[in-house]
Specification:
Helices cover 26% and strands 30% of the residues. By secondary structure, the chain is of the alpha+beta class. The strands form 17 sheets. It has a five-stranded parallel beta sheet with strand order 2-3-4-1-5, sandwiched between helices. A five-stranded mixed beta sheet has the order 46-50-49-48-47, with no helix packed on it. A four-stranded antiparallel beta sheet has the order 9-69-68-67, with no helix packed on it. The longest helix has 22 residues. The radius of gyration is 39 Å and the shape is elongated. It is found in: Cytoplasm.
Length: 1241
């Protein structure tokens, strides 16, 4: 017995034992030949009913599939319908040979009854559909006590006639329900005269059989009219053949069916489920699915060519998928292949090209060719409805639409449309999904292909005047498939930024990307690539709400791109009407390695993987969901609420038909990818969270490996057809973090928190080798535990690779990183991908640092051919990278602590790079003008002089350097460190510098330090003044100019919550203000120098008088740390920004709140601004406010509304530098990309 059936019996055992009477069921099972007399006697010898039931079930569990089916049928016959329903979904499939002996071989009596009644013989090629057959039999048993109707309905070629004949091929059914016999009448499309002939023939046959049984009865003359024929048939069925079954095959018309409304028992097959509404009596119905399961269809093809399903060519599976398992198409093609067994590719091509006339009759089916069978259904419609049905050509394969879509097309009320669609559904010309409200409608692929072929010219004509449009949300279909229906206008449509904006806003970017992939063959390759790249890399932004400005996003594309050209034209036109747009002028220096960026989940993504054919990607994470999407476009194919807790891993089976998931809820689940249904749950054996799961690599023997945080039984192997694990590996004493099969599935590697990597023989589950990775960290082992995070195999299986802490061990080679290694993968012998804290590298010979993720990377995987690399991260994105396009060396990136000089149209940017060099760049182009040698100590801060060519830097070892540059060279002017000439210098140790500023008037360099002191160096003379007083790190400082004589005053603020005012010349502390209960995070001086504002971690902001040194305004209301502030140029407003991304505008005069910016627009990162608000700037006319955080925003000051948003590649912008005319903006993101933004005019 199949595992699924056995498992179902075990799960339902208690309910069955409680209710069934074994003696009632055993009679049927003995008739079916699955139970012997001796077995019946042993069961009956049990003293109680419950013990008899238990004994029957125990015996049943030791038998085969036939016993399960016989037991199910017995439950149906004995009116245990509720118990039968428990077993229904696990009914096993039975092979044709076995089914013949089981169903046919009831008795000769069954064969004789069916033969006398004209029931067709079973087809030469036959595959059982037990679930459907049992549903029909269940309905027929309802006719045992009273007349009625059972309707078997479905689309053309779905196998209704074969199913009806097979349902009555049952000894118990005939003897118990229809002892009067079973009589078959093929009807079809008839007029009244033909119908009369058919009924005359049936009456003659019934009278002849009656005379053979009773010679005293006589034959009557044939009835002369339909009314007379109906009465004659009524007499025969009620008097001569009481309790008999009349099967009416292929009924088309209700007027025909009324001729058989004679109060008898009727089973009818039809394409129109509503036909039985016109007759009297009890009614029930069985819907026949339009397609066979793939295994069943392949079995039919194998029988036609005298082969085995597993040995059929790959085209066989493609044929089945192309026709969705249609029994008619499979049978027609199978019969043709019997004569021409080498034409697999030809018939597949014929089917794909919709040449239905070439799939011609080679069986007993009523129509000569496939197209005739489908056309017959349409011809019976009224003329009006026929035209409406042909209009359904606009539908797309596998897409379900509500009635409102066709309401737009037909210009009818939705209720009228539903009435028309109901007629189509009744006639099996259309399918309806009743699980949604409103109902969704769809066509079978064959129906749609037939309509498209028949109505191709009409379709093009319909859309020549433009598409139907509607703003209704349920009419999104037109936006999704407009490209399909306007093929002639495809290029101008798809290469329009306006169309991109409209469709992306309504449908999302994935559908657009899919359009470029699907219609790529007829589009200009270069322009298509530009639009596709734009959408692929910005898709995660286009998923955000409020919807971003597509023109602004497109301005970040290369200057040579058609996307950029259109965006620039639109930006320039809108700028004349007051619009604000920014051009990223130095973007040409940046090369992106990403091919696709997708945001499939709201929350961290812990795992993502390619399917083995490379066409799909599955991902999962903290959202508790599993999502499958196309690897080319990111279009969602499946989304499942998979677990009750975070989903930690997902994995495809070798044939890509199954997906396994594991979770913190301690469960392992296996899903059907195509249907999205749950196939198996393993929930009882792991007692802690399950960290990782993986299928075997080959289809030879399918196993699933899982590992968990369990103390001992933490690694298991599962056969997915069995309810419990097949093997448990014992050996690890701490949680196992990762498991991985070798390429040939002979071994399983496991990585554990106990510091070991173990290799296991899969066949025996015995430990083969153990590697103590912790010994490789002998110097550090005593300090902290060594956790082996993950392991993988080389493509040939000869090398095992593992990661622990910041090291990767490849055979005997060791690669060390400064950041913890989280995950890695190997597609072939020359590449290894390693996930680090916020980027990952591809090594063996280091090829690239692939920066882009904004947070911890949890997993990486190569595509099967190694051309793509997949990564997933806490930043909620999945990225796909092209390995052939990676840089040959690591890209130089800049640190965020920078300074910028705007001078007479020239822009100079100074910052440290990731190789610890000081760089000076041209702010117009981003080109490097000068760079220093590598510094011995880390550069912590930089500054540039506003009037000379001096550049200063502070190092981690406490050293200060001042450089001067010309257009061709950069010179070291002075190296300021501890020594002579300093006043108040503490010569005990070194202290890291945290902030640097250069004063051009005094030739001084000021540096804040972590120890709370500030150094003021006269860099021309080397003299130093040390300002001491802060108790914690100096956050920043600024010159305070209130009078001409105060130009040497310095204002500093610190994490100790104080503000201090200093005389830079003497080092004297002029003022010491305790401002806040928490750290002072920002300070700004008003343009006239009369006020200054402070913000703090205590969630408040304060305004202070520079004359009285008292607090004049306390500003409360922020819900998080207030991190930034800025006075407007007229001194009337103060802007403050907090760590929740909220910006507040205050009236400085009275402290009232004027506006709150970003109140209702939280983004996917759960912040109003994509992160902390770190910097603020007003425009010179005080009408626009600029803010930085996760991205850059410009605001209308009067309205508090966003004017524009620029999304950087990275995040966490620290500060932004603004030109005096508010036209140029310079900043650096957290992955080191320099942005020089220029207003479009």
């Amino acid at each position: 017995m199949e595992e699924g059936a056995r498992s179902c019996l075990l799960q339902s055992r208690s309910s069955l034992e409680q209710d069934i009477r074994a003696s009632y069921l055993m009679d049927h099972m003995i008739s079916d030949g699955v139970l012997t007399g001796d077995e019946e006697d042993r069961i009956r010898s049990k003293p109680t009913r419950k013990e008899q039931a238990a004994a029957l079930l125990e015996l049943l569990l030791r038998k085969d599939n036939h016993a399960y089916i016989s037991f199910y049928n017995a439950l149906v016959r004995e009116s245990y319908g509720d118990l039968a329903s428990l077993l229904h979904n696990s009914l096993p499939l039975v092979s044709p040979e076995a089914e013949k002996s089981f169903s046919d071989g009831g008795t000769r009596y069954v064969q004789a009854v069916l033969s006398e009644g004209g029931v067709p013989q079973r087809p030469v090629v036959f595959v059982s559909r037990p679930a459907l057959m049992n549903r029909v039999r269940e309905k027929l048993y309802h006719l045992q006590k009273e007349p009625g109707w059972v309707t078997v309905f479905g689309m053309a070629g779905s196998g209704k006639s074969v199913l009806a004949a097979e349902a009555v091929r049952d000894h118990a059914l005939i003897t118990e329900c229809f002892p009067g016999g079973v009589h078959w009448l093929s009807v079809g499309q008839l007029d009244r005269s033909d119908l009369l002939v058919r009924i005359q023939s049936l009456c003659f046959r019934l009278e002849q059989q009656s005379q053979e049984k009773d010679p005293s009865s006589s034959l009557h003359r044939p009835p002369g009219s339909l009314e007379e024929a109906k009465e004659r048939l009524r007499f025969l069925m009620l008097r001569r053949y009481p309790r008999s079954l009349l099967i009416l095959d292929d009924i088309w018309d209700s007027s025909v069916l009324k001729a058989f409304d004679i109060q008898c028992r009727v089973l009818l097959t039809t394409r129109d489920r509503s036909l039985a509404d016109c007759v009297s009596g009890s009614k029930s119905e069985v819907a026949v699915e339009s397609g066979l399961e793939e295994d069943q269809a392949l079995e039919i093809l194998a029988l036609y060519v005298n082969g085995k399903p597993q040995r059929l060519p790959e085209q066989a599976r493609s044929i089945v998928r192309e026709c969705k398992g249609s029994p008619l198409v499979v049978s027609l093609i199978g019969a043709l292949l019997r004569e021409f067994p080498d034409r697999w590719a030809y018939y597949l091509h014929t089917l794909q090209q919709k040449k239905f006339k070439r799939i011609r009759k080679s069986s007993s089916y009523d129509y000569d060719a496939l197209d005739q069978a489908m056309a017959a259904s349409i011809q019976v419609l009224s003329e009006e409805h026929r035209e409406r049905y042909i209009d359904l050509t606009v539908l797309e394969k596998d897409v379900k639409v509500p009635a409102k879509v066709l309401s737009v097309l037909w210009d009818l009320e939705p209720e009228e449309v539903e009435d028309v669609l109901q007629d189509f559904v009744n006639k099996s010309l259309l399918f309806r999904d009743c699980h949604h409200r409103p109902y969704l409608y769809y066509l079978h692929d064959l129906q749609l292909d037939f309509l498209a072929e028949m109505n191709r010219s009409g379709l093009e004509q319909r859309y020549s005047q433009g598409p139907p449009t509607s703003g209704d949300e349920e009419c999104l279909y037109w936006f999704r498939f407009l490209t399909y229906h306007m093929a002639k206008e495809l290029c101008s449509l798809m290469f329009s930024l306006d169309w991109v904006r409209t469709k992306a806003q309504i449908m999302g970017p994935a559908h657009l990307i899919n359009d470029y992939v699907e219609y790529g063959a007829i589009l200009d390759k270069e322009v298509r690539g530009q639009f596709q790249e734009f959408l692929s890399l910005n898709g995660h932004q286009l998923e955000q709400r409020p919807f971003p400005d597509v023109v602004q996003l497109a301005l970040s594309q290369p200057d040579s791109s058609e996307v950029y050209r259109q965006a620039l034209l639109q930006a320039q036109e809108r700028a004349t009407r007051g619009g604000l747009y920014l051009d990223w002028v130095n973007k040409s220096s940046l090369k992106s390695l990403s091919r696709l960026v997708v945001q499939p989940h709201q929350g961290s993504i812990y795992s993502a993987c390619f399917s083995h054919d490379g066409t799909k990607i599955a991902s999962c994470g903290s959202s508790k969901t599993l999502r499958v999407f196309k690897s080319t476009s990111g279009e969602k194919m499946l989304e499942i609420q998979a677990h009750d807790d975070e989903v930690l891993c997902c994995a495809f089976s070798p044939d890509d038909r199954l997906l396994a998931t594991c979770s913190s809820d301690r469960k392992v689940k296996v899903w059907n990818v195509e249907r999205g249904t749950l196939m198996r749950v393993f929930e009882d054996e792991h007692e802690e969270q399950v960290n990782h799961c993986q299928f075997t690599n080959t289809r030879r023997r399918l196993l699933l490996a899982t590992c968990s945080n369990d103390k001992f039984m933490n690694t298991k192997l599962w056969n997915i057809n069995k309810p419990s694990s097949q093997n448990t590996m014992f050996g690890h004493l701490e949680p196992v973090n990762h498991c991985c099969f070798s390429p040939d599935d002979a071994y399983l590697s496991t990585s554990s928190s106990d510091g070991t990597l173990k290799l296991w023989e899969v066949s025996s589950a015995n430990e083969w080798k153990s590697i103590d990775v912790a010994d490789m960290f002998s110097e550090q082992r005593e300090q902290t535990e060594v956790m082996v995070k993950c392991s993988t195999w080389s493509a040939g299986g000869r090398t095992i690779i593992c990661a622990a802490r910041n090291a990767v061990f490849v055979s005997v080679e060791e690669y060390t990183h400064t950041q913890p290694v989280d995950y890695y993968t190997v597609p072939c012998t020359h590449m290894v991908a390693i996930a680090l804290s916020n980027y990952y590298t591809i090594i063996r010979k280091k090829m690239a640092d692939c920066s882009g993720h904004l947070s911890w990377v949890h997993g990486v995987q190569f595509s099967p051919d190694g051309s793509l690399l997949l990564s997933c991260s806490d930043d909620q994105t999945v990225r796909v990278w092209e390995t052939k396009k990676v840089h040959t060396s690591s890209a130089v990136c800049l640190k965020r602590d920078s300074d910028v000089l705007f001078n007479n149209g020239d822009i100079t940017v100074v910052a440290a790079d990731n190789r610890n060099r000081l760089q000076v760049r041209n702010g117009r182009t981003g080109a490097v003008m000068f760079q220093s040698e590598n510094q011995e100590s880390r550069i912590r801060c930089t500054a540039i002089c506003s009037q000379t060519s001096a550049v200063g830097l502070g190092r981690e070892d406490g050293t200060i350097q001042v450089h001067t540059h010309t257009h061709t060279h950069c010179y070291l002017l002075t190296d300021l460190s501890r020594g002579a000439g300093t006043r108040g210098w503490d010569d005990t140790g070194t202290h890291t510098h945290t902030h640097t500023a250069i004063c051009s008037q005094t030739s001084a360099v000021g540096l804040g330090r972590e120890d709370g002191t500030i150094q003021v160096w006269r860099w021309r003379t080397g003299e130093c003044v040390v300002l001491e007083g802060h108790k914690e790190q100096v956050r920043c400082f600024s010159l305070l100019t209130t009078t001409p004589s105060s130009e040497t005053h310095l204002l500093s603020w610190s994490f100790d919550g104080t503000i201090k005012v200093w005389d830079m010349s003497s080092g004297e502390r002029l003022q010491d203000l305790v401002c806040h209960q928490g750290a002072v995070l920002a300070c700004d001086v008003s343009p006239d120098g009369q006020l200054f504002a402070t913000t703090s971690a205590d969630k408040t902001a304060k305004v202070w008088s520079s004359a009285s040194w008292e607090c004049v305004r306390l500003l409360t209301g922020h819900q998080d740390c207030v991190r930034s502030c800025r006075f407007s140029w007229d001194g009337r407003r103060l802007a403050t920004g907090d760590d929740n991304g909220e910006i507040r505008l205050w009236n400085v005069k009275d402290g009232t709140l004027l506006k709150i910016c970003s109140r209702d627009n939280k983004d996917a990162m759960d912040s109003l601004h994509g992160g902390w608000v770190t910097d603020l700037h007003f425009s010179p006319d005080n009408t626009v406010l600029l803010s930085t955080g996760g991205y850059i925003k410009w605001w209308n000051v009067e309205k508090g509304e966003a004017l524009q948003t620029f999304y950087p590649t990275g995040a966490n912008l620290k500060r932004i530098h603004v030109s005096p005319d508010f036209s140029t903006f310079v900043t650096i993101d957290n992955i080191g990309i320099l942005y020089i933004l220029k207003k479009v005019e």
